[in-house]
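@here heads up, posting the sequence + SMILES for the magnesium ion run so it's all in one place. Ping me if the SMILES looks off, I pulled it from an old spreadsheet.
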Amino acid sequence: MIYIPQRIKEIIGDQEYSQDEVGMSESTVLMFPEYVLKIQKRTPETENERNMVAWLGDRLPLPQIPIYYVEDETAYTLMSRVPGKMLCEEAFMRSPESLIRAVAEGLRLLWSVDVSDCPYRVSRLDERLKAARENVESGMVDLENVEPETFGPNGFSNPEELLTWLEQNRPQEDIVLTHGDFCLPNIFADRDHISGFIDLGKMGPADRWQDLAIVLRSLDHNAAGVFNDGNPYFRFEPRMLLTQLGMEMDEEKNRYYRLLDELF
Ligand SMILES: Nc1ncnc2c1ncn2[C@@H]1O[C@H](COP(=O)(O)OP(=O)(O)O)[C@@H](O)[C@H]1O
Ligand SMILES: [Mg+2]
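bot reply: prediction finished. Complex structure tokens:
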């Protein structure tokens, strides 16, 4: 039995739930008919998600969070269910044009928000590097879940060496509102239009390439069939997305933010 605090039970009553198996993090996600309850260790990210949702109000399609409650260092985030389907679902993967159009729409929505007075900073590079250092020093980097080329003969010897490189090669930040983990399962769309973003622990002001690098990798992997028993859907090229955004590839930042993500 999963423990659910009383004040959350008061809202969800005795509605049945299913347990979601998609996410990668060490969290428990319970899906109720209208709500989702995410149970995880309390971290600066769980607090940030609550803060950013409150700060953004109705400026973006995000879940509402009627209750964020911490008990015994466990955070219970009760949020509304966002409508639509995840962009990694079959229907989108079989329709590359609408998929990529939806990703571009998602980025433009994020970039349209003025973050000049946003008080939250966990997304900023200096804070991300500090968090990365904590992960490295406490042995939290999951070496089973990294790109094959990151570590090894042509890559870094170990997470510590990668971290030092990231600290010494910080790019100039071009600040926009970023999602922070902008991969296809965290983006929902309904009839080809963005219906919501979820998993907002790293959301906040950061460089534009934070989201671009992760979504380019996510599109690449999903299109190549990495999560579909190796059966490819289509051939993805970064320019398919970048031309819609009127942008050029920035190889350095793309590589930098992909590498940064390896330490989380
Ligand atoms: N508010 C929500 N609305 C609809 N589905 C959700 C919501 N929150 C989570 N989910 C589902 O649960 C999955 C995992 O949740 P997520 O917050 O992304 O956790 P993780 O940190 O494990 O990736 C999502 O991919 C999605 O399928
Ligand atoms: Mg997720």
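MO: DSSP finds nine helices and ten strands in the chain.
MO: One more: The longest strand covers residues 35-41.
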